[in-house]
Amino acid sequence: SVAAATATATTLLNYLIKRIKEQQQSAADSNNDDENKIATKTAYYNLLKAISSSKKDDLNATDRSKFDSSLFEYIGATINNSVPILKWPFVRALEYPEHYRALLGLPQTLEQTRRWLTTISHLKCKEIMKNLLSYIQERIRIRSEETELLQWVEQVLVYMTGHGRFKKDLQGYNLPQQSKQSVREILNQIRKLMLAETSAVKSLAASAKQQQQKGAITAVFIDRDIRLEEEERQSRRGANFASHIESALEKKKEFEPIE
Known about the structure:
The chain is mostly helical. It contains 10 helices and no strands.
């Protein structure tokens, strides 16, 4: 229900904020440093999972915007003025496909993730992308059809590359070429998986249509048609989504990049 979804996400957000504050307060205790980092990361992941799994009507755009703004208030939280507490939880969250639907509805969080991704080494970026693909392949092996999930992941990864945006709009946060190549390689793999699922569905539909035509010989160029449709769709989705996020960020005048 609407109330249940909102209450769950609110509880998880409050717990994450609590973990961030506790991590700041316990900064002097190096013995608990790793434990605190894991607790904060887990709290963030749980919030993303809850938002991702909520039905659209149960957690609407207004609610998601509130969570996004509340979360963004703690983007700059650091320990001893060093690396932001949420930097690695944000970036590492890209390893898990179940987080991507949530990111699509959290524009400030998504943009900050993109910016922080541009600051890590290409080896770390490659590792994150490799782990993401492994988790996706495992999900497909178990659940078979994951078309929506693949579409969500595709949209986020395209956004991470800066596709569909002018260089000036990236505000200096440009994904290094090696990292961009790692993201694009995984994008290609994901699109192949999407194409395979789409091809299977269309092949079944074409086969059924041919059977109904009782002897009529019809040349069906399914693979070629799908490839053309896919290329056009990818281009449109990338540009449209980037424009959507930019519009959402324009409304958030307090948004400033965090190093």
